[in-house]
Design goal:
The protein folds into two domains: about 100 residues, Roll (Urease, subunit C, domain 1); about 300 residues, Metal-dependent hydrolases (TIM Barrel), CATH 3.20.20. Helices cover about 35% and strands about 20% of the residues. The chain contains 14 helices and 17 strands. The protein has a four-stranded mixed beta sheet with strand order 3-2-1-4, with no helix packed on it. Strands 5-13-14-15 form a four-stranded antiparallel beta sheet, with no helix packed on it. Strands 6-7-8-9 form a four-stranded parallel beta sheet. Helix 6 packs parallel to helix 8, helix 11 packs antiparallel against helix 12 and helix 12 crosses helix 14. It starts with a strand and ends with a strand. The structure holds zinc ion. The site of zinc ion has 5 residues, from loops. Keywords: Hydrolase, Metal-binding. It comes from Puniceibacterium sediminis.
């Protein structure tokens, strides 16, 4: 009888160590030097990076792959995107949304992205978005962990049924409480929405993840209220603030008071660099603000920060591939995280740190962990961020779910090697 159902041999782990990984059923049951072991199936990862799967803590699966429907976002702004999506949300059928989302999940699996937290718009009374995404969650469950956030895109209080529909979505089984305080009518209503949403989460025992201060307005300070309410209600460790772009523009003295409050409340931060760098600063002439929150400064305070993807081919963003290494690559540049330990941290931010933010259970490469991993055509995490290479093999819950042949370029140059890989 075989020792393992699946054996991943000879890989380099993100910490630089070399180990074989023995899998039975959906679990890693042995990790280390496993020479001589017999396995039903063997993946040879010699010389390649073997990492736990990528995790995206911020996405919009109901809107994905809808770019250009009903038309393209001409101004490129967040607000035109919201308005375009508002039209699509009421014409798209449940079947269409399910089909688009499943296609995106296929892309994700092929890139080794096996856990996604997706916000789901709860604005429309028909809640077709919620029906569709719950259906997708059920279909992909065997191979992809999909967490859903009830997200009142047009405001909790700004539409007559905003609050009721958010509660209905939670009753239907949506996992996380969302919000958008900077989009409410006034600062006061924004603040009240944060309090209300945190109380709903406390009462129901749910996590919180708000689109928070996604604006260039330096006076948008809902993150302060989010940290305060988290601490007041004892929600430490289960609250995240997504975007936090206003922090880019805030007064430095105020930020020196704010960062310790966020750290004390154990609120995590989820910047979305591809989207923040394209949507923010649109009202500026020159110099133009980047709109990315203060990543290195938060990390220096011990705040958990993860890179999110946010959008792929939707009313807000025309590009995107489902590759979290694209996200890490952009984040590294915009946050100027160029020291070796910072580049390596960018890889952790799309793997282990994101897994911590969304509370993923059994994550990682150790005995007893869920047997999910990705084999990359790279030697280490920094090289993975630099090359954004092919995912040679993806294992989800013990099953080999995606494979790609190594694809070196063939050179036809006199006196030069016949192929080139760009690895160091
Ligand atoms: Zn978002």
């Amino acid at each position: 009888m075989a020792d393992f159902d699946l054996l991943v041999k000879g890989g380099t782990l993100p910490d630089g160590s070399h180990a074989d990984i023995g899998i039975r059923g959906d679990r890693i049951i042995a990790i280390g030097a496993l020479s001589g072991a017999v396995a039903g199936e063997v993946i040879d990862a010699t010389g390649d990076l073997v990492a736990p799967p990528f995790v995206d803590p911020h996405f919009h699966l109901d809107a994905t792959l809808s770019y250009g429907t009903p038309r393209i976002n001409a101004s490129g702004t967040l607000l035109e995107g919201i308005s375009l999506w508002g039209e699509l949300r009421d014409t798209a059928t449940v079947d269409e949304m399910v089909a688009r989302a499943l296609t995106y999940c296929d892309w994700a699996v092929s890139m080794g992205l096996l856990a996604i937290r997706s916000h789901v718009d709860t604005t429309s009374d028909h809640l077709n978005t919620v029906t569709a995404m719950l259906e997708v969650q059920k279909i992909v469950r065997p191979y992809l962990d999909l967490q859903l956030v009830a997200f009142p895109q047009d405001g909790l209080y700004r539409t007559p049924t905003g609050r009721t529909n958010l509660l209905r979505a939670l009753d239907m089984g949506v996992d996380v409480v969302g919000g958008i305080p900077h989009f409410e009518r006034t600062m006061e209503e924004g603040r009240a929405s944060v309090r209300d949403l945190c109380e709903i989460a406390a009462e129901r025992g749910l996590p919180v993840d708000l689109h928070c201060d996604e604006t260039d307005d330096p006076l948008s300070r809902h993150i302060e209220t989010l940290a305060y309410e988290t601490q007041r209600l004892g929600l430490q460790g289960r609250v995240a603030g997504s975007h936090l772009t206003s922090m880019h523009s805030m007064d430095n003295y105020y930020v020196s008071k704010l960062l310790p409050l966020i750290a004390e409340a154990e609120v995590a931060a989820i910047p979305n660099p591809l989207i923040n760098i394209t949507l923010q600063g649109r009202h500026d002439t020159y110099p133009k603000r980047r709109g990315l929150t203060r990543v290195k400064e938060m990390q220096a305070m011990g705040i958990t920060v993860g890179w999110g993807q946010d959008c792929v081919r939707d009313p807000w963003y025309s590009l995107g591939t489902g590759d979290m290494l694209d996200v890490a690559f952009m984040g590294l540049h915009v946050a100027q995280m160029t020291a070796p330990e910072q580049m390596s941290r960018c890889f952790d931010m799309v793997t282990v740190e994101n897994a911590r933010i969304i509370g993923l259970e059994g994550y990682g490469l150790h005995e007893g962990a869920v047997a999910s991993l990705v084999v990359l055509d790279a030697g280490d995490p920094i090289e993975a961020v630099r090359l954004r290479p092919d995912r040679l093999a993806v294992v989800s819950k013990g099953r080999l779910v995606s494979q790609k042949a190594r694809n070196d370029a063939r050179l036809a140059l006199e006196g030069r090697p016949q192929s080139v890989r760009r690895r160091h």
